[in-house]
Amino acid sequence: MPTPKSSDAATPAAIAERIRDAILEHRLEPGAKLTEAQLCDVFGVKRGTVRQALSLLATEHLIDLEPNRGAFVASPSLREVHEVFEMRRIVEAAVIERVCRDRDGQGAVHMKALAKMIERERNAFEHRDFRSWIRLSGEFHTALAALTGNRVLCNCLAGLVARSTLISALYESLGRSPCSFDEHAQIVDAIEAGNTEQAAELMVRHLETVELKMLDRPARGAADLREVFGV
């Protein structure tokens, strides 16, 4: 029998977060079917709660809801790969320019925090903790955007990073994330040096490299949801 869930852990938002994490950490691959009955069993909730959670994820483009077929982890096309990374290059170049322009007395503290994040990213890779590595790779970009103080921009980029991670799950093998911590470190170094043009160029080049490293490989499309969520 599933372990009883607390009321907080059984809300649509909490369930959506659990599923989101499983997708972004590559425990659920693109194309995997999210069977309502299994999810109800896993989380100890009724179908209405599961359907609300799935609707939340559908608005984030992380799952597809198909009439008469059910819910599936989204499978981005190659065209979407290009469009997502094109948008990221535009947004993140602007992030670099804003961060460099508006650096205040806390600039050194912020850069130190980013450097520590990159070190955790490196350690996760060296210890073969690939799921943490993937998560930290995305968090570097969202943490950098947070320094702008622009919540709309941050929400926009968070959505793009989430979709990029989903794309990575489809086109990359686990343990071969194209997002390089060494390139992240070079970007931070350029920001610290006050070289806005170089930092923006490094970010654009970094994202171009990420896009080019994507490999065309089909997802398995099936998953044991009890195993994925540790029930």
TrEMBL record:
CDD domains: WHTH_GntR
GO MF term list: DNA binding; DNA-binding transcription factor activity
Classification via PANTHER family: HTH-TYPE TRANSCRIPTIONAL REPRESSOR NANR, TRANSCRIPTIONAL REGULATOR, GNTR FAMILY
Pfam family, one: FCD
Domain of life of the source: Bacteria
The protein's name in its UniProt record: GntR family transcriptional regulator
InterPro entries: GntR_C, TF_FadR/GntR_C, Tscrpt_reg_HTH_GntR, WH-like_DNA-bd_sf, WH_DNA-bd_sf
Gene3D superfamilies xrefs: GntR ligand-binding domain-like, Winged helix-like DNA-binding domain superfamily/Winged helix DNA-binding domain
Domain annotation HTH gntR-type: ranges: 9-76
Keywords in alphabetical order: DNA-binding, Transcription, Transcription regulation
